[in-house]
Write a structure and sequence with these properties.
With 253 residues, this protein is an alpha/beta fold. 33% of the residues lie in helices and 30% in strands. The strands form three sheets. Strands 6-7-8-3-9-10 form a six-stranded mixed beta sheet, with helices on both faces. Helix 4 crosses helix 5. The chain starts with a strand and ends with a strand.
Length: 253
C-alpha cells in the first residue's frame, strides 16, 4: 500500500522553483531513500508531504485521504517528522524531549500517562540513548542529540516516519544502527522516507530510491535502477566505483 502519494506537486519560493511537477509514492512497509545534490528539493519534498509547505500545484494523499482533509492533530499522530539538524540545545532532560513525541495523544497540558512513559522509554532504548536520558540536551554531543530527536519521532508511534538527513551527526556505527532501525520500522509496516547524502549507504539499505535534481524527479525505483551510471553522471557529476553489484565509491568526472 502507498502511504503517501504526490501527484504533479510543485513548490515555489517567490520566483524560485523548489519542486516542479513531482509525482511519486512512499510505500508502507518499506524504506524509501530520497537523494540528490544540495538544493535538489529533498527537504522541501518532505515538508510538502507533511503539509508544512504550501503547494503551488498538484495534490498529496496521506493514507488514502487528501492531505488537505487531515485535521492537524490527527496528522501529527499519523506521521512523525525528524527535521534536519541536531541543534536542539534545550536546557531540559533528554527523556522530556522524547515525551514531546507523545503530545498528539495528550489533552491540553495534561501529564504523560503510563503509555506515554512506556513509549518514550522504548524509543530511547531503540536509539541507544537510554544511558543519557536524564542528561540535559545542552550537555549532549550533536550525535547524542540526534539520537534523542529520533527517539522523539519514534515515540509518536506513527504509521509514517519522515527523517531529513538523520545520519548527518552520527558516527559510522550509529549510522548503520540508524538504518537498521529504519528497516525494523518498515518491517512493522511503517512507511519510512529518509533523505541521505551517503549514496553507498542509501544503495545498501533502502528498498526504493528517489533521485531529485533541480527540483525535478530525475530517477526512481530500486537502488540499482535509480543509481545507474547515467544518473550518477548527469545528476551528481560522478562515476561509480563498484565492487560487484555494490556501490563502493566515486570519482569526479
Amino acid at each position: 500500500m502507498n502511504a503517501v502519494v504526490l501527484e504533479h506537486v510543485s513548490v515555489r519560493f517567490g520566483r524560485r522553483t523548489a519542486l516542479e511537477d513531482v509525482s511519486l509514492s512512499i510505500a508502507a512497509g518499506a524504506v524509501t531513500g530520497i537523494v540528490g545534490p544540495n538544493g535538489a528539493g529533498k527537504t522541501t519534498l518532505l515538508r510538502a508531504a507533511l503539509g508544512l509547505q504550501r503547494l503551488a500545484g498538484g495534490s498529496i494523499r496521506v493514507l488514502n485521504k487528501p492531505l488537505v482533509a487531515w485535521p492537524r492533530e490527527a496528522l501529527a499522530r499519523a506521521a512523525a517528522y525528524l527535521p534536519q539538524g541536531g541543534e536542539a540545545r534545550w536546557p531540559m532532560p533528554a527523556s522530556d524531549v522524547v515525551l514531546l513525541g507523545r503530545l498528539p495523544y495528550r489533552i491540553g497540558l495534561g501529564a504523560p500517562d503510563a503509555k506515554d512513559l512506556k513509549a518514550a522509554a522504548e524509543a530511547l532504548a531503540r536509539c541507544d540513548a537510554g544511558s543519557f536520558a536524564r542528561r540535559r540536551m545542552d550537555e549532549l554531543s550533536a550525535g547524542e542529540r540526534a539520537r534523542v530527536l529520533l527517539a522523539r519521532a519514534l515515540a509518536t508511534g506513527a504509521s509514517i516516519l519522515m527523517a531529513d538527513e538523520p545520519a548527518a551527526y552520527l558516527d559510522p556505527a550509529h549510522q548503520l544502527g540508524l538504518m537498521d532501525l529504519f528497516r525494523e520500522e518498515a518491517r512493522r509496516g511503517t512507511a519510512v522516507a529518509v533523505t541521505l547524502h551517503d549514496l553507498p549507504l542509501a544503495a545498501r539499505l533502502c528498498d526504493e530510491l528517489v533521485v531529485l535534481h533541480e527540483g525535478r524527479l530525475a530517477a526512481g525505483g530500486t537502488p540499482a535502477a535509480a543509481l545507474s551510471d547515467e544518473t550518477l553522471a548527469r545528476v551528481f557529476g560522478v562515476a561509480a566505483m563498484r565492487s560487484g553489484d555494490v556501490l563502493a565509491a566515486f570519482r569526479r568526472i
